[in-house]
Design a protein that fits this description.
By secondary structure, the chain is mainly beta. Helices cover 0% and strands 51% of the residues. The chain is built from no helices and eleven strands. A hairpin with a 3-residue loop joins strand 9 and strand 10. The radius of gyration is 13 Å and the shape is globular.
C-alpha cells in the first residue's frame, strides 16, 4: 500500500491550496479515505473524511465551509481543496486509509 501526498507549500493567509493523495496497492474505490493534520506540539487531528463512493463527507468544525474533500476513483486519488487559509491551518497534512495506512505527509504553511 502506498499513499503519496503532494500539493503542500507556503501560502499567505486567505490563500488556497489543493492537496492530492495518490493511492496504490489496494482497491481504492472500496475504501473511505481521510485527511488528518498535525501541527507542531499538537496531536494529529481529523480534518475531513469521504466515503468510498464520495457520496458523503464530514469535516472538522474548524475547517467547515473552507475545505472540501473529494475523490476520483478512476485516478485512485483523493483531494483536499483548502480555501481561506489561516495561520492556524499550518501543519503537516496526512492522507489516511482508515485501516491504519498513512502517507508521508505534506507540509502546509500559512504565513505572511
Amino acid at each position: 500500500v502506498q499513499l503519496v501526498e503532494s500539493g503542500g507549500g507556503l501560502v499567505q493567509p486567505g490563500g488556497s491550496l489543493r492537496l492530492s493523495c495518490a493511492a496504490s496497492g489496494f482497491t481504492f474505490k472500496r475504501y473511505a479515505m481521510s485527511w488528518y493534520r498535525q501541527a507542531p506540539g499538537k496531536e494529529r487531528e481529523l480534518v475531513a473524511a469521504i466515503t468510498s463512493t464520495g457520496g458523503s463527507t464530514n469535516y472538522a468544525d474548524s475547517v467547515k465551509g473552507r475545505f472540501t474533500i473529494s475523490r476520483d476513483n478512476a485516478k485512485n486519488t483523493v483531494y483536499l481543496q483548502m480555501n481561506i487559509l489561516k495561520p492556524e491551518d499550518t501543519a503537516v497534512y496526512y492522507c489516511c486509509r482508515p485501516v491504519g495506512d498513512w502517507g508521508q505527509g505534506t507540509q502546509v504553511t500559512v504565513s505572511s
